[in-house]
Amino acid sequence: MADQPEKTAVPAAPEAQPATTTTAAVPVPEAAVSELQPEPKAEELPAEPATTTTTEPAAAPTEAPVTESAPAPAQEQPQEDKKEEKEEGEEEEEEEEEKKEEPKEEKAEEKPAQPEYLAKNPALSQFFDRLPSILSSTSYNEMWGVSLKDSADVPTVNVLIKFLRANEGNVKLAEEQLTKALQWRKEMNPIALADGHYNAEKFSGLGYVTKYTEENGSEVITTWNIYGNVKNVEATFGDSDEFIKWRVALMELAIKDLKLNESTTVIEYDGEDPYQMLQVHDYLNVSFLRLNPTIRAATKKTIEVFATAYPELLREKFFVNVPTIMGWMFAAMKVFLSKNTTRKFHPISNGVNLAREFPSLKDHFPKPYGGNGPALEDGALTVKLEQAAPAAEPAAAAEAEAPKEEPKEEAKEQAKEDAKEEAKEKPAAEEPAKAETAEAPVAAEAK
């Protein structure tokens, strides 16, 4: 029994173990416990668990920093690398996506250049694709005062819409017509013709341009051709080129008032066109149109030019005071003009009924056409006219001088004859007679 206190003192060693557990703490408690297990007392048994429980928790904190702290940095570093790699990969993917999206962004930027009026009308878009080639082939870009540019320019859009509508949406035909019209304007220079001067004897009183304002504020441009005022058929229509230049000059004056080059709104392709004019042709007292080949030739040539160079500028055309014999003229027009144009033609047998077609303009139309407005001669615009009298004066002067030369010659001959007679009768006075004959022509030329 005396040995037991010594043996019981041995378990005290484990209590001191926590101080050395940092180096070999784990195997020591196991050996101590295995040695003490054969002779434990019932009362001391609880002490061993207490020592084990105290030693194990003590070892746990010491092991945890050693075992967990060392690998922790090794595990975290790969995660950071992976994050960095992932971030780099994401950045590369983002760059690739940006590169892929760049064309999309460019397309998005190009969308404003593809406005709604082109998206709705593929034919108009195709027409604009052909425009650079048209301008290059003609080396000319002016049409009705508009400098043709691109689809972002509203005046250019309206010009192309007119040519496309005139050809019922056929891009190829519209391209051909625009090309011909540009070539014609390049050669003819119609803007200069509008500022030119024309023979008053041939064209005075034949053409006018009016601008009337309706109640809603819109302006109505009208060209008037008064063929009943023709004084000399051959003088007016005999030179068809001169007649066309005068007629083109009148048309260009009307186009200036349309102000196509100042347009800010695109024409609705299937809607109303505010950039159009009215035309009135008055044939009162005209009886020469049916049979005169000069008139027919000039009319045919004018129709051809206007059909090519001025499409879709006509809102409506009225033939007033029309005789029944003029059926041939309408037949000729249908040959050269499109259906969209000929459907706008309205023959009226009595010119007084014209104002009925435009009730809002009754106060503006001249009285011969059913209105209450002033006569065309008093308020309408026309081309510049000049009298041809100065050119005829030199011819008249030459004709006036011609008869005066005959007496001179006769006086000379008569003077010679008289001198001969006098020489025969008075031989002694021969010398004075010669002196008198020499003076006679000089006096005659002076007179």
Automatic annotation (TrEMBL):
Q: Where is the composition biased (Basic and acidic residues)?
A: 100-113, 401-437
Catalysis: reaction(s): a 1,2-diacyl-sn-glycero-3-phospho-(1D-myo-inositol)(in) = a 1,2-diacyl-sn-glycero-3-phospho-(1D-myo-inositol)(out)
Q: Where is the CRAL-TRIO domain?
A: 206-377
Segments of this protein annotated with the region Disordered: 1-119, 386-447
Q: Which GO terms describe its molecular function?
A: metal ion binding; phosphatidylinositol transfer activity
Q: Name one Pfam family in it.
A: CRAL_TRIO_N
Q: Which residue windows does the record flag with biased composition (Acidic residues)?
A: 87-99
Q: How does it sit in the membrane?
A: Peripheral membrane protein
UniProt subcellular location: Cytoplasm; Endoplasmic reticulum membrane; Microsome membrane
Alphabetically sorted, this entry's keywords are: Cytoplasm, Endoplasmic reticulum, Heme, Iron, Lipid transport, Membrane, Metal-binding, Microsome, Transport
Q: What SMART domains does UniProt report for this protein, alphabetically?
A: SEC14
Q: Which domain of life is it from?
A: Eukaryota
Q: GO biological process annotations for this chain's record?
A: Golgi to plasma membrane protein transport; regulation of exocytosis
Q: Which family does it belong to?
A: Belongs to the SFH5 family.
Q: What is this protein called?
A: Phosphatidylinositol transfer protein SFH5
Q: Which organism is it from?
A: Aspergillus ellipticus CBS 707.79
